[in-house]
Design a protein that fits this description.
This protein has 373 residues and is α/β, with parallel strands linked by helices. It is built from eleven helices and 17 strands. The strands form three sheets. It has an eight-stranded mixed sheet with strand order 9-12-13-7-14-15-16-17, covered by helices on one side. A hairpin with a 5-residue loop joins strand 10 and strand 11. The longest helix has 19 residues. It starts with a helix and ends in an 8-residue tail after the last helix.
């Protein structure tokens, strides 16, 4: 265990909080504001001490808005702050590698949002750098930390559905549809690495793998049915080079079949439905969007002589962050449970929260893309 690991583990085991600095916490509307900020404030053991933004002035405005005293105009200044033990990188994907490198060079633990890198090569390089420095890392694949998925994982392990025969996921991406907001143009450009494949599909894939095991022989076929989206303010078309359809199939450990279909935009019908079908029963997880990592998730099941589904209440033992409501605080809910699990990992020497090595492996799992003829 190196100095950074031992420091974080020591803090986690003591009454002293882990000091957090967020790169990318804006004053209004940022992902960090909607997820990491309420999550950190709901989990004892952390203290948000610093933030950085695009300029010193914007950082100071954000600090005033969120009550954070340490404000910096650059990431380099933030990671150099002695009060910061864990650096959270919550900016657009093309900037992840540079900012993570800055934090690693300072010997700090790092939590980086998913996708880890802009493509497989970047992700593998970041994982290699982190391994060489032996610092604790987390990648933001938080769906597996959602209490509903954790309960489903144990139900499957305990034989609720019997032998798993197949599983099917259908989801809507929200973005990559007919319209796009002014702040979201960058996700339409495949070169930026924030696509239907890398974001909602991959979050759902990682959640599924945590419950049923890693799919093997996963074959992914994207398709572009839309080539532009209409800006909601200007009414002008915006080019879309990212695929708006993703279809995938593979086999689970033991031979069960796994299929996925993700589509851009929102459906008037199903926006997230995940079925697990077995010899003894069925489990169904649903959500209002195809992003189980940031949505309230409903769990239903039926088995034995039952001919239908019934709601399955998630036991309180799975709810590790009672200060947050799974619906009202949906963007922060699974994130907060990941933060809580990271504390347990540090205290107990476990590794249940995905690290950079896991992030690189997840990037490899979506690399087997079939190019349309």
């Amino acid at each position: 265990m190196n100095t950074s690991q031992s420091l974080l583990a020591e803090l986690a085991r003591s009454e002293k909080p882990i000091g957090v600095g967020i790169i990318g916490l804006g004053a209004h509307g940022s992902w960090a504001e909607r997820s990491h900020l309420p999550a950190l404030r709901a989990v004892p053991g952390y203290e948000l001490r610093a933030l950085s933004a695009s300029s010193k002035q914007s950082a100071e405005r954000s600090g005033q808005t969120h009550g954070v005293s340490g404000t910096f105009g650059t990431a380099a200044e933030l990671v150099a702050c002695d009060e910061v033990d864990l650096v959270v990188v919550a900016v657009k994907v093309p900037h992840h590698r540079e900012l993570v490198q800055t934090a690693l060079d300072a010997g700090k633990g790092v939590l980086c949002e998913w996708p880890l890198g802009n493509g497989l090569a970047e992700a593998e390089d970041m994982a290699r750098q982190a391994r060489g420095r032996a610092v604790p890392t987390v990648v933001g694949l938080q769906a597996r930390s959602h209490p509903a998925l954790a309960h489903a994982r144990d139900l499957v392990a305990d034989g609720y559905v019997g032998e798993v025969l197949s599983t099917t996921v259908v989801g809507s991406g929200g973005a990559w549809g007919a319209t796009v907001g002014p702040a979201d143009h960058y996700v339409l450009d495949a070169a930026n690495g924030a696509t239907l494949l890398t974001i909602p599909f991959s979050h759902a894939l990682d959640g599924l793998a945590s419950v049923l095991g890693e799919p093997r022989e996963l074959r992914i076929q994207p398709a572009s049915r839309r080539t532009s989206a209409v800006d909601t303010e200007s009414g002008q078309p915006v080019p879309m080079t990212a695929a708006d359809q993703v279809v995938a199939s593979g086999r689970l450990p033991g031979g069960a079949v796994a299929t996925f279909h993700y589509r851009g935009g929102m459906s008037r019908g199903t926006n997230f439905r995940w079925e697990i079908n077995g010899t003894e029963g069925d489990l169904v997880l649903t959500a209002p969007t195809g992003h189980p990592q940031l949505s309230p998730v409903t769990l239903e099941g039926g088995r034995g002589t039952s001919t239908g589904l019934a709601p399955l209440t998630v036991p309180e033992s799975y709810v590790r962050v009672p200060r947050l409501d799974p619906r009202a605080d949906a963007p922060a809910y699974a994130v907060a449970h990941a933060y809580r699990q990271f504390l347990d990992d540090l205290r107990e020497g476990t590794s249940r929260v995905p690290d950079f090595a896991h992030g690189a492996a997840r990037h490899r799992s979506i690399a087997n893309v079939i190019t349309p003829a």
